[in-house]
Amino acid sequence: MAINIAVDGPAASGKSSLAKALAQKLGYMYLGTGELYRAVGYYMVKNYPQGYKIEDVIASLKNINIQLQFHNGTQNVILNGKAVSAFLDEDDISMAASQVSKIKEVRDFLLDLQRDLAKNNNIVMDGRDIGTVILPNAQVKFFLTASPEVRATRRYNQLKEANKKADYNEILANIIERDKNDTTRELAPLKKADDAIELDNTAYDFNTNLEHMYKLFSEKDVVE
Question: Considering the entire predicted model, what is its pTM?
Answer without folding.
Answer: 0.85
